[in-house]
C-alpha cells in the first residue's frame, strides 16, 4: 500500500523532507519525490480547470434557457360577442384564455447559436483535459507505489543485513550436529508421511 499522498503536500500539513530522508535510508531514488509533486500539482490544477468549465457550461445553459423563455406561451383574453356586436353583460360575460407563441428575433437566434457553439467548444476542451488528468493521475500513482513506508529513526542504515542490531535474545543456541535438514527436505518428509498414512487408511 503506498504512502499517503498528503505527506508530499506542504499546503496540507505534509512533510516531503521526511519522505526524502526515508528514501535515502532505503538507498532509493530521491528525485522521484519531486516528480510526484510536479504531477500532483498538475492534477490538482486540472481538476480545478474541469470544475470551472462545468460552471461555465451551466451558466451558458442558463443563458440559453432565459432566451428560450421568451418563446413561452403568452396569455391573451377575448370576450365572446352576440349578434349585432353587443357584448354580454358583466355577469354573463366569460373570458376565454387564448395563447400564442412569439418567435425569436434574428438577433436572439444568433445569440443562442453563439452560446451553443461556445458550449460545444468547452465540452471538447473538457474531454481533452479529463483525458490528460486521467493520464497524470495514473503516472503519479505508479510512482507513488515505488515509495515504501517511512523508515523509523531506530532502523540502522545499511545496504544489507550485516549492520543489523541485536535487540534481544533468549534461550541457548543449539549446537550443530551435522544431521540438520533443510526445510525442503523436512517438507518432503512430511508429505511422504501423510501419503503413507493415507495408504494405511485405505488398506484398513
Automatic annotation (TrEMBL):
Basic residues: bias regions: 84-96
GO BP term, pick one: seryl-tRNA aminoacylation
Lineage top rank: taxon: Eukaryota
GO molecular function: ATP binding; serine-tRNA ligase activity
Pfam families found in the cross-reference section: Seryl_tRNA_N
Residue ranges constituting the Serine-tRNA synthetase type1 N-terminal domain according to the UniProt record: 3-76
InterPro entries assigned: Ser-tRNA-ligase_type_1, Ser-tRNA-synth_1_N, SerRS_1_N_sf, tRNA-bd_arm
Region (Disordered): 1-22, 84-106
Compositionally biased region (Basic and acidic residues): 97-106
Official protein name in the record: Serine-tRNA synthetase type1 N-terminal domain-containing protein
Amino acid at each position: 500500500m503506498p504512502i499517503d499522498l498528503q505527506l508530499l503536500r506542504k499546503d496540507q500539513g505534509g512533510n516531503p523532507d521526511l519522505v526524502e530522508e526515508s528514501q535515502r535510508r532505503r538507498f532509493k531514488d530521491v528525485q522521484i519525490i519531486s516528480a510526484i509533486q510536479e504531477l500532483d500539482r498538475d492534477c490538482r490544477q486540472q481538476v480545478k480547470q474541469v470544475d470551472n468549465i462545468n460552471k461555465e457550461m451551466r451558466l451558458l445553459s442558463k443563458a440559453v434557457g432565459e432566451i428560450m423563455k421568451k418563446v413561452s406561451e403568452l396569455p391573451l383574453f377575448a370576450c365572446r360577442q352576440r349578434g349585432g356586436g353587443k357584448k354580454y353583460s358583466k355577469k354573463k360575460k366569460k373570458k376565454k384564455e387564448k395563447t400564442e407563441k412569439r418567435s425569436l428575433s434574428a438577433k436572439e437566434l444568433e445569440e443562442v447559436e453563439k452560446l451553443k457553439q461556445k458550449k460545444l467548444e468547452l465540452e471538447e476542451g473538457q474531454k481533452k483535459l479529463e483525458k490528460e488528468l486521467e493520464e497524470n493521475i495514473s503516472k503519479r500513482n505508479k510512482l507513488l507505489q515505488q515509495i515504501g513506508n517511512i523508515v523509523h529513526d531506530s532502523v540502522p542504515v545499511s545496504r544489507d543485513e550485516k549492520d543489523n542490531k541485536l535487540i534481544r535474545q533468549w534461550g541457548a543456541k543449539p549446537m550443530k550436529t551435522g544431521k540438520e535438514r533443510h526445510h525442503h527436505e523436512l517438507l518432503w518428509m512430511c508429505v511422504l508421511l501423510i501419503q503413507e498414512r493415507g495408504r494405511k487408511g485405505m488398506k484398513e
